């Protein structure tokens, strides 16, 4: 991951700040930076969202394609993730530099989102054992300024909310040859239920405390961080420890509790925002990438 | 301004693709009218003074037709009278999508300068472009686009002419669209309404396409036939063996029936019988179709079904029967083998061909295509004028090379009654190739040296020049033989030949040659009108038999010769022995025992009944029906050469090269055999020879059909003139619901049906063993003598037919009273 050089003095300054619940940019330990979300930004996807969190910019597109369900779960569709670390985000990603990070991110995202508790995978089934919808979730990192997981997860939730899958119905002739027929009306489409889609909250252990939404500098001061995915009800669906340092059980407990609290609080304004944007319909002035 | 158009599409691989197109809107699109002075890059198309006299629109106006009007009333739009029409891009695109011919026609109209048709690209005009709304179908969206564009035009023109009189008129036949347009404040008419309002141009109304009321449209259409399957389904069906592919052959006697010949290797079933219009499912003769087999239970067991005779009278049943009953009609099969049945599920390749027909008003409810084959090629019976007193047979071989030769690869001798169409040019056929008295002619001769017992000592074939001493008709020759006073050379040689012929015939009969009978009928034609005046059965004289005998001998000799010379590629003719089951009906009729042709011939000769001279003829007619068809074949492709009817081990056709193509081939072979000519590759290729034989057999069969049809036609003409005739006849066959009656005098057959649709059917008891049919109290047996009345039923102009009704025996409720016979109708007289 992109790293910044932080001097010892700076580190001490940051750690001391965090201890007093005051961070470099004036936030408290459990505060997020300013966040902007826009959905339906890429017209040739089935659902898309762009998020900027501080200086972190992430674009997520969802494409629905018809595929074959996995043999273990014939009546479910599935999601596939691909994270593209653009060299725009940081020069380190140039060439194959971002590949490792991309794979790591997409594996984590797959664990968090591709299960029936997060997304109603059954609604993606077209014909059990034969056809299902496969949602290809493409994540494009436009700019990295820390806390990628949180930004990506929020963008994915927004993009899934925005996703419209064309309605199909299966017609079967006497011989049992099934044919997929598309609805002729472009407005006739299926929406996903994103109620249970979790958001990831990453908590960084700095000194004896932990912060959410760490910037790159703060990150440099942290030895270990905990990634917690939380649903709107506060249910933790996934926890993952990252970084080289160690965490004592007590602080893990504390961090989980904080993560739940922050995550729960994050869902409410996000959904409100998405609903509001949706209600604007076509009148909404699109911002896009130049805004 | 940029908009994007989004739609989802299914890809060929089965995926779903979302396609997004950029769509640019402009504000500089010209309205195309002369009144609009803005921007004149191109000359305006629409005239300022767009006047057409109309009751509805007295003001100058432009027309805007909607898609359906363009599609259905293109005839109107093409009329030079209709000018100043705005074709919207929406309309044009829809037309293009739905009908390529209509699109081409409207495009042509647009290009025509005098028509003043203007294409307005409303989809790219900033003010007329609309986006599809949620819940709106594509059609509704297009209709709305048309209304919006029309409205824009109306406003635009009003503005440009400062509220002047120039208007736009929207034409639509869609009721909902019309209502919405009216609410929207547009001038809108139905196409019909508008056209009818045009003063002084009533002819335009004739060009209006009939518009079905859009609400009745769906309810009215009943599914007449099961839908054909899509090609992909057919292909997969054939692949996995559910369906069979084959060539459909309509049964030419029964339009409700056909056969599909499965032309696939290793298939147990090679023939599928189709019965009933539903199962034929619009297949036309020679189409390549896909058929689905019925389960074995539905395969036809002929004994259990209504037998519909396979002679032309089953047309009788055509309209009389209800649809359901039609499906159960079966042709008579003489053995008890179950035939696989099935139904046509799709047509793989249509056999497109021109049809001719006539339309009569609602006589036939649904015209679906003609199942009958149209047979045109015919095969001639010899004209009686030339006979050959020379036994030697004859003719300079006709030889064609190059292109001309190709054309002759089929029969084309056509004769329908007194008219004939020759296979070879007339100069050849009736002059150069005919032996005339005292004229030298080139010939191909077969010369036998015989002793007095007509045993052949030596046979010799040669090309020759013949100077015939006399040219006689059969009758003249017969007279000379019979007239004891004549003792000139010709008569003497005739008598000599006749004696030899009798010996030959005796010997042939000894071997088991059959003399079969068919009621041959000849019409006397009115020379002016070509209407048949009278008909008579053909009479055979001794001289006929004499000439026939020597011809047979020539054919046999030649057959032997060419086979000896070319064992692989000789063109021969065979007549297979009929399978014993074919005789069932005859045995039942005569209880005669038959195992060989000889036995058959003998028993036929012996089968006479006191006081019933016609009995023997009847038996022979029946026997003929049992026979197989004689066919040409190539000696290299077959092993059985036997000619059953003539009881000859080998046979060919040699004697009539001017009217049979087979004879020409045989001539060529013989010429090569005697070193009189050189050969050519096709002649020696047994596969080509074999396919030629197949073609000959096919043509021959078609010719026979045509001949029968011609006889039937002239029989009808004859009875048309005669009115109602009472005649005696014999029962030829007994069927479940009818008896087939042969009228010896006219040589015709007809059926008397006992089940009638308007009357309750009489009690019918059918015994297939007899076979007998008991109608009320009377039992009909085969060969019973009955009296019938014959008339022409012209109630249906398309299916005129001879109708027979029973007079005697009198069965109450079945037979008809003796009608007033017309004076000229002679009393039945049987000459057997």
Q: Would you mind describing this structure in some detail?
A:
The complex is a heterodimer of chains A (291) and B (832). Chain A is of the alpha+beta class. Chain A contains five helices and 14 strands. Chain A has helices spanning 8-19, 99-113, 148-162, 216-221, 249-280; strands at residues 35-39, 47-53, 56-67, 78-85, 125-127, 131-143, 164-166, 168-172, 178-182, 189-191, 199-206, 209-212, 224-230, 236-242. In chain A, strands 1, 2, 3, 4, 5 and 6 form a six-stranded mixed sheet that branches. A four-stranded antiparallel sheet of chain A has the order 12-11-13-14, sandwiched between helices. Chain A has a two-stranded antiparallel ribbon with strand order 7-10. In chain A, a hairpin with a 2-residue loop joins β2 (47-53) and β3 (56-67). In chain A, α3 (148-162) packs parallel to α5 (249-280). Chain A starts with 7 loop residues before the first helix and ends in an 11-residue tail after the last helix. By secondary structure, chain B is an alpha+beta fold. In chain B, 31% of the residues lie in helices and 21% in strands. Chain B has 24 helices and 30 strands. In chain B, the strands form eleven sheets. Chain B has a five-stranded mixed β-barrel. In chain B, strands 25-24-23-29-30 form a five-stranded antiparallel sheet. In chain B, β23 (725-734) and β24 (738-743) form a beta hairpin. In chain B, α3 (89-98) runs antiparallel to α4 (100-111), α17 (489-511) crosses α18 (542-565) and α19 (584-590) packs antiparallel against α21 (614-626). The longest helix of chain B is centred in the last third of the chain and has 37 residues, at 686-722. Chain B: One of its GO terms (biological process) is rRNA processing. Chain B: Keywords: Exosome, Nucleus, rRNA processing. Chain B: This is DIS3 exosome endoribonuclease and 3'-5' exoribonuclease.
